[in-house]
Amino acid sequence: REQFDSVCHAMETLFSKKGRGQPVAGGRGAALSTRFLAFSGMRINEALGVDWDHIADGKIEVYGKDGELKTANSRRSIHINRPLQEVLDEIGKIYGRNGRVMPTANLRKYLEEACAHVGIQRMTHHDLRSWFATWCVLAGVDVDTCARWMGDEVTTVLRVYLQVNDEAQREAATKLQ
């Protein structure tokens, strides 16, 4: 999480612009979009299709950009967790709560330069889905629920997205007695 937060902070720093005495969201929008993807587990085209009217009762209804979804499981509801709610509140405060939620569509340049600045391996929007799956499982969310939120089968989440690091494996080993 610390590396993730450093990458988002680097985006804001590297790509901040000034306009009429106030910061203009370039890097800020990219950092918020990155957090939106990471805390929701959505694919980028799903996230780009989220409008403010798709959010109600603590859930985001996923319809996809232009109504196109990748899999049969992609049409789903994602329950809003605390960090995701904080991101939604911040996006709403800066950009308003009309139309599309995600402020920045093309994150590749932002992520690439921010990762280089922080000194970590390049990340893509695909890596944010892996980050979400790993974050969920390490936090104790069962894989079935995580898979439903991601719009994937459990086997796909386990095979493609979940990346448990050495520290998590060490901690898991201490639980076996």
Describe this entry's structure for a reader:
- The chain is mainly α and 177 residues long.
- 55% of the residues lie in helices and 9% in strands.
- It has nine helices and five strands.
- The protein has helices at residues 2-14, 27-40, 44-48, 82-95, 108-118, 125-138, 143-150, 154-161, 166-175, and strands spanning 17-19, 22-24, 55-56, 59-62, 76-79.
- The strands form two sheets. Strands 3-4-5 form a three-stranded antiparallel sheet.
- 33% of the residues are buried.
- The mean pLDDT is 88.
What overall form do the CA principal axes indicate? globular
Counted by DSSP, the helix tally is 9
Main sheet strand line-up: 3-4-5
pLDDT averaged over residues: 88
Summary, kept brief:
The protein has about 180 residues and is mainly α. It has helices at about 1-15, 25-40, 45-50, 80-95, 110-120, 125-140, 145-150, 155-160, 165-175; strands at about 15-20, 20-25, 55, 60, 75-80. It has nine helices and five strands.
Q: What layout of secondary structure does this protein have?
A:
Blueprint lengths: L1 H13 L2 E3 L2 E3 L2 H14 L3 H5 L6 E2 L2 E4 L13 E4 L2 H14 L12 H11 L6 H14 L4 H8 L3 H8 L4 H10 L2
Helix pairs in contact: 1-2, 1-5, 2-4, 2-6, 6-7, 7-8
